[in-house]
């Protein structure tokens, strides 16, 4: 019998909550119906993640420099022994059949799969976040009903793919998504765009493959929402193309209109700022001393 697991899980850690990380690891160890290995890719300022990994035979540890989220994702793909690779975040709690449900659709021929991302609110969210599907997408939450269906993208907190199906496209752009601690995004969306362009490749939403995403109070604040919107605009300009509409549900609610009104101005300012970055030839340098020096130059 081969000792290669059915699927490899990769988790990128920086300075995340230790209790939430332990809960995530315990959920992965309780997965049903599959064999898996887990790689923790760590760029934190301490040794606690390493110590926790040493407690388990199937949880492996790798430290890398830098804070880029997609750099960590790519390292997990590189280290994986399985053809199937799943990604989640250290503040997520996968359900017991998460990996089994993802693997079933990969076995059926999907190139990329992902499932529900439901909130665990750690503080009471304001109305314009709680009731808005736009705000939920902004928080990387997703629920598209109870049917397995083909979609245009899935989110990085709940995604899996086949390396053999994607070939050279089974990697993430390292100048997108939480670059050097800055709220740049879009790495998972850009990954899905490339995957869907491959002949015969499809992206499938699997509702049974659910993870619970823990949302801390700071991400519900007005200031964080504006900051996230601004860097959403930067990311869109840097990635290229046009904004993708939030799909799922019918029409815009009052909460969507309130949230959209708050979001649109900082988003547009972020787009203009992104144009300035592109003209200066900046990308993966975002958040570094070189970036700060060059972006302020005339």
Report on this model:
This protein has 298 residues and is α/β, with parallel strands linked by helices. Helices cover 38% and strands 19% of the residues. It has a single domain (7-218), classed as Spore Coat Polysaccharide Biosynthesis Protein SpsA, Chain A. The protein has helices at residues 18-29, 48-53, 69-79, 98-107, 127-130, 133-138, 163-166, 187-196, 222-239, 254-279, 289-295; strands spanning 7-13, 36-42, 59-63, 84-88, 92-94, 112-121, 149-150, 159-162, 203-215. Helix 9 (222-239) crosses helix 10. The longest helix is centred in the C-terminal third of the chain and has 26 residues, at 254-279. The chain is globular and about 55 Å long.
Helix-strand blueprint:
Elements (H helix, E strand, L loop, with lengths): L6 E7 L4 H12 L6 E7 L5 H6 L5 E5 L5 H11 L4 E5 L3 E3 L3 H10 L4 E10 L5 H4 L2 H6 L10 E2 L8 E4 H4 L20 H10 L6 E13 L6 H18 L14 H26 L9 H7 L3
Parallel strand pairs: 1-2, 1-4, 2-3, 6-9
Antiparallel strand pairs: 4-8, 5-9, 6-8, 7-9
Helix pairs in contact: 9-10
Computed Rg? 19 Å
Count every helix, treating DSSP H or I runs of 4 or more residues as helices: 11
SS class = alpha/beta
CATH superfamily: Spore Coat Polysaccharide Biosynthesis Protein SpsA, Chain A
- In the predicted model, the low-confidence regions spanning at least 5 consecutive residues are 287-298
Q: What's the number of extended β-strand segments?
A: 9
What is the straight-line distance between the termini?
63 Å
Largest sheet, strands/sense/barrel:
9 strands, mixed
Number of domains: 1
Strand content: 15-25%
């Amino acid at each position: 019998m081969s000792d290669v697991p059915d699927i490899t899980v990769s988790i990128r850690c920086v300075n995340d909550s230790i209790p939430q990380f332990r809960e995530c690891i315990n959920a992965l160890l309780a997965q049903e119906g599959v064999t898996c290995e887990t790689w923790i890719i760590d760029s934190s300022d301490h040794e606690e993640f390493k110590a926790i990994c040493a407690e388990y035979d199937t949880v492996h540890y790798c430290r890398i420099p830098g804070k880029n989220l997609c750099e960590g994702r790519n390292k997990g793909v590189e280290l994986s022994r399985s053809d199937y690779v799943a990604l989640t975040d250290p503040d997520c709690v996968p359900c017991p059949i998460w990996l089994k449900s993802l693997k079933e659709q990969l076995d059926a021929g999907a190139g990329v799969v992902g499932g529900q991302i439901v909130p665990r609110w750690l503080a009471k969210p304001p109305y314009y976040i709680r009731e808005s599907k736009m705000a939920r997408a902004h928080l990387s939450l997703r629920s598209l009903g109870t049917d397995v269906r083909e979609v245009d993208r899935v989110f990085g907190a709940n995604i899996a793919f086949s390396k053999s199906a994607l070939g050279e496209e089974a990697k993430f752009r390292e100048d997108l998504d939480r670059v050097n601690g800055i709220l740049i995004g879009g790495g998972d969306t850009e990954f899905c765009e490339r995957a869907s362009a491959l002949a015969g490749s499809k992206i499938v939403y699997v509702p049974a493959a659910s993870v619970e995403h823990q949302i801390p109070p700071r991400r519900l604040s007005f200031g964080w929402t504006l900051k996230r919107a601004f860097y959403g605009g930067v990311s869109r300009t840097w990635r290229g193309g046009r904004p993708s509409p939030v799909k799922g549900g019918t029409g815009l609610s009052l909460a969507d209109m309130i949230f959209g009104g708050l979001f649109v101005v900082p988003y547009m300012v972020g787009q203009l700022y992104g144009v300035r970055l592109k003209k200066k030839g900046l990308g993966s340098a975002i958040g570094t001393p070189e970036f700060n020096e060059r972006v302020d130059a005339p």
